[in-house]
Amino acid sequence: MKAGRILAATVAMVAMAGLMSGCVVFKGAPTAKQIGKKPRVQVAFTICASGGAKSNCPDLGNAGQGFGPDSWRVLIGLRVPKGTKAPQKFRAVKVNGDGGTVRLARSPQYASELNSKAPKRKRFRYFGYISNPVDPDGTTNAARFKVKMRVPNSVVGKRFKVRPVVGAVQATAPAVDCGNDPFTTRGVFGSEGDGTICIDSPAPDAFRNIKVKIKR
User: CA-to-CA distance for 10 and 13, rounded, in angstroms?
Assistant: First the structure.
């Protein structure tokens, strides 16, 4: 199976060639916990495609629309305290359906957009990640991630706070551009390289941190 088809089978954000409404959202609340003897945190979450033929997602996300028949990329952002050591890349640890995985790598462009336009507190920053192009006619609709990070010394003995976000960009888009509002769709999915939703989940009024007490 070709790599693009494997990615499509694992995430499949759109069913029936994108004709049904669907968005990228978190399935259940993301969680976090301290792991190992050194101050590290594992953030776990599942993303899924709402509105698809096999979808069991909770809502339609901030975009509230399908992605159209063209290829696209998954966007995942992590808002963490400055000094956090985040991975350069990560991949799904569990997927639905016929196997394969989805891999994401650092995107300085997406991170820059989030850091300049998304909700951010003092002494916090975003790491941004983008996936390889995904074919929208896949047959499964969910992927599970567990992202491990080294926490800064400043939070040892205190609470580490993290906020994951998820979105999507059309694969032919020349850049990740959040527009004036990262919670709204920029362009039209299915047009010539113009569809982007930088934060499809969570909703602006649900933008709460996950907190983990870091033991010494």
Answer: 9
Classified as helix, coil or strand, 115 is helix
Distance CA 199, CA 56 (A): 20
Q: Token digits for 148?
A: 């491990």
Q: In the structure, how many helices (H) and strands (E) does the chain have?
A: 2, 12
| Residues 6 or more apart in contact with residue 204 via CB below 8 angstroms | 62, 119, 183
Which tokens go with 11? 């995430």
Would you say 92 and 40 are in contact if contact means Cβ atoms under 8 Å apart?
A: no
Instruction: Tell me the two tokens of residue 121.
Output: 């507190």
Res 162: pLDDT = 98
Closest by CA position to 20, among listed 141, 131, 129, 112: 141
C-alpha 109/C-alpha 132 separation (Å) is: 15
Cα separation of 131 and 126, whole Å? 17
173: its two tokens: 């888009």
Report whether 194 contacts 188 (CB < 8 A).
Answer: yes
Per-residue pLDDT of 159-182, as tens digits, reads 999 999 999 888 888 889 999 999
pTM of the model: 0.84
The structure tokens listed for 184 are: 């709204």
All residues at 6 or more sequence positions from 209 whose CB lies less than 8 Å from its CB, including other chains: 79, 161, 162, 163
Question: Helix, strand, coil shares of the chain as percentages rounded to 5?
Answer: 15, 35, 50
Written as six digits, the tokens of 107 are 């995107």
The tokens describing 154, both together, are: 């400043």
Residues 6 or more apart whose Cβ sits within 8 Å of residue 45: 26, 28, 30, 31, 144, 145, 164
